[in-house]
Amino acid sequence: MASLHATARRPPAAGRPRAARLRRHAWSYVFLVPGILLFGGFSLWPLIASWWYAFFDWDGVGTPTDWIGLDNFREVLGSGAFWDAFWHSFAFSFAALVIELPLALVLAILLNNAWLRGRNVYRLALFLPVVTTTAVIGIVFAILLDPIRGVVNTALTDIGLADSPINFLGSTTSALPTLIGIDVWKGFGITLIYWLAALQTIPKDIHEAALIDGANSRQSLRFVVLPMLVPLAIVILLLVFQRSLNTFDLVQATTQGGPNYSTDVVPTYIYRFAFDPFLQAPRYGFACAAGAVFGLMTLLISLMQAPLLRGRYKAGAP
Amino acid sequence: MSTTELVRETPAPAAPDRPDRRNRWYRHRRKLWHLFLIPFCLLWVYPFIWMISAAFKSQREMLLGGLSLIPDEWTFDNFDRAWTTAKFGDYTINTITFSITVVLLVLVASSTMGYALSKPGLPGKKVIIGILVVTMFIPHSYTIIPVFLLINDLGLNNGLLGAALAQASPGLVVPILLFMGFFAGIPRDLEDAARVDGAGYLRTFARVLLPLARPVIGTVALMNFVFAWNAFFVPLVFTLGAPELRTLGVGMFSFFGQEGTDWTGLAAGACISTVPIVIVFLFLQRTFVEGIAGAVKS
Question: Which ipTM was obtained for this model?
Fold first, then answer.
């Protein structure tokens, strides 16, 4: 970009349309500078740099000099704790795709009906968690689910659904499903808005035309509206996948990956190796390698999903 | 004419020849959805109701337990404790500073870049847009280490500006595309007229185009304000060595770590952290929801 900028300043040589064109756009290049500095410096460069750092044994002091080749990657791929964190991250996305996505679609179809009274109130209620801080809400849930005096356990034992209080976030078996439940609760509103936006792109006439042609409401939904949603559904799926895979706030605020690493996800894993205050010396190189492996895998999976779904859409469309 | 008749006819086939009772049930069928929707939504709202109620209960009442949502005696002690002892007052100021800085950074960088990219025939435009769109599909959470080190090297690690830079950058893509789309849709004649009147590039942008882009500015500002207010990861990493710079989310986390059993105080802290942003959202609901929906449509 800098070289383009330099060319732009040069006086236009006669008969050189390219230079003239660059000169004409000189101000536009000046306007690109803040965006490129901010985005290039803090988004693009880190993507490249984290791969570079991954080849060093480095604690962050001075410049990285201790080149160890692929050793960090070997350690990451051979580490059971990393793979556990990796699968936990995927458990969050899996739940988002299998539970949250279809459930939000059902509610979006319901709330998209003009005949439903109070639909704005329902939508508002479901959207409320989205605008609140995940970390704060996570802590509120930790209190609600407390095994000793928490409201949920009090209610469960009072009704008789549980004989003894359930230690939701404190036991290795229930902590991950509990956090996944809270994550679905928190993200539901966004997915709902995505679906509602997608439904609103479908003209009302089409649904009405199907009704006139003798289809009932359900048939129209199944054979007309849903197939038309597929292209946008792919986008929504990717957005939800990306969001759920990067769960950090909720886990860090409530369990910090515990108990016994049973809720550790890749971002908390990376965080621990780089920033944990109890750490003797940060392992930036190793943490970068873990991040790079995770980033590459998610990118591959994201790229895989789109054509797969598009193929299915083509096969399914009449 | 014939169409309207047909539309009027359509509900009929479902109804005829059916016994009256079934018909009545059919007519009220739609209301049955509320039986499902009301409990479902209560599940979504309950934690907030609990949070507000607990914030006004006395610590003694909380210790006794019970499921009542209405405090026996209302008290402001919890807010007092959270605001001064747990320093939520400072955290609120930090959060406001941090969020406004993020919004300003995003607005300046995305409006200028969006305007430049809206120019037809700008050499290198396609490459830049391509890079922006591709990076949208790469997760950003794991790149925190180079960001952290870069901000350290710039000497910005002991202020909220460093954190704001790290927070603003990954969120730039959608605003840039929004501004680009908006400016590209404005007739060229308008810019030409401004130029004829003697306005340069800068003045055309600042005096003619930016005022027109007010709806986009509003959406971008609101979205990024809410996101920055709710940010946790970036402020956490950048305030590890500077507790006085903590934002509300990070402050809540450390309060929970130190005073995990002070539930009423924590509830008051949670209210201080979430109620302002919920109020902002309630007033500007439509803008916010449309901003989120824009991610799907664009």
Answer: 0.83
pLDDT of residue B27: 66
Sign of the alpha-carbon dihedral angle for B10, B16, B18, B24 = positive
Name all domains of chain A by residue range, CATH numbers in brackets. 2-40 (no CATH), 71-316 (1.10.3720.10)
Note the residue count of chain B: 298
CA dist A78 → A70, A71, A272, A290, B277 (Å): 12, 10, 18, 11, 44
Residues 48-87 of A with CB under 8 A from B: 49-50, 53, 60
**Residue A134: its chain B contacts at CB < 8 A?**
230, 232, 249
Convert the pLDDT of each residue in A211-253 to its tens digit. Answer: 778 777 777 777 878 888 888 888 888 888 888 888 899 999 9
The Cβ-side half-sphere exposure at A297, using a 13 Å CA radius, reads 16
Instruction: Please check the confidence at residue A176 and state whether its pLDDT lies above 50.
Output: yes
Give the residues across from A67 on adjacent strands.
Answer: A56
pLDDT tens per residue, range A265-297: 999 999 988 888 777 778 888 889 998 888 888
pLDDT value for A98:
93
**Residue owning tokens 């603003």:** B168
- Of the CA atoms within 13 Å of residue B131, those in its CB half-sphere come to 16
The one-letter code for the residue type at B3 is: T
Domains and CATH numbers, chain B: 86-258 (1.10.3720.10)
For residue B51, the chain A residues in CB contact (below 8 A) are 140
Run of H or E including B282:
helix B263-283
| Position B8 pLDDT exceeds 60 | no
Give the alpha-carbon dihedral of B92, B278, B284, A34, to 10 degrees. 40
Mark A281-303 as b/e (b = at least 16 C-beta within 10 Å).
ebbbbbbbbbbbbbbebbeeebe
Q: Give the C-alpha separation, B4 to A83, whole Å.
A: 62
Q: Which residue's entry shows tokens 């000793």? A: A148
| pLDDT above 80 (res B104) | yes
3-state SS assignment for residue A56: strand
* Cβ contact A137–B37 (<8 Å): no
CA-based nearest distance B181→chain A, Å: 16
| E strand spans, chain B | none
User: Coil, strand or helix: which one is A264?
Assistant: coil
